[in-house]
Write a structure and sequence with these properties.
globular; about 55% helix; two-stranded antiparallel ribbon; mainly alpha
Length: about 190
């Protein structure tokens, strides 16, 4: 038995700490993502929180992220933060699709990894998935840069915004002038 309420109490506390609050609704996801309106997005929803943590929260910083999550949870978004959520939606939607795509192509089951196919359709191959992910990631990165530019221009509306080192140059703050690359070769000057 654990002190302070037992196992269930501790488990509930831990779950509350790790529960993600998505910054965008399913409606905003459908509106801004590259998936069709007729697609059942239930399978994409978990990837919204993953993409949010990996790509968006690093732009917003912890204080602004916490404020947005608190206002979303209590349904008290300010007009400025409502505008910010609308600006976040395109990038977050594309990153969520980017994260989810491999798991919509293949499934991890007891017997291993299987490719999803049905009677009416045939799956694309891994090379096509890789190319599609690259296009989606490129678009998501562009939308993320636009989000950073928006925050930099409207900094007075977001006093809690604390950009990470990589976002600082977009915000007119001190930061690295080095361009970071995630693939390929880069030879500095």
């Amino acid at each position: 038995m654990f002190a302070g309420g037992g196992y269930l109490s501790i488990t509930k506390k831990i779950m509350n700490e790790y529960m993600q609050t998505p910054l965008i609704s399913e409606e905003l996801f459908k509106l801004h993502s590259p998936v069709t309106q007729s697609t059942d997005i239930t399978d994409f929803v978990p990837y919204i929180c993953i993409a949010q943590e990996l790509y968006i929260e690093t732009v917003l910083g912890q204080p602004l992220t916490a404020e947005l999550k608190e206002q979303i949870a209590s349904d008290t978004l300010t007009p400025a933060n409502s505008d910010l959520i609308v600006r976040i939606a395109p990038a977050l939607s594309f990153y969520a699709v980017y994260q989810a795509l491999p798991f919509h192509w293949a499934s991890i089951v007891n017997k291993g990894i299987t490719i999803r196919e049905s009677e009416n359709s045939k799956s694309v191959d891994i090379k096509d998935i890789a190319q599609l992910r690259r296009w989606i990631k490129d678009d998501a990165d562009t939308l993320r840069t636009q989000l950073i530019d928006f925050l930099g221009k409207c900094r007075a509306n977001y006093p809690l915004w604390q950009p990470s080192e990589g976002c600082a140059k977009h915000a007119g703050e001190q930061g690295s002038d080095e361009k970071s690359y995630d693939s390929g070769f880069y030879f500095g000057k």
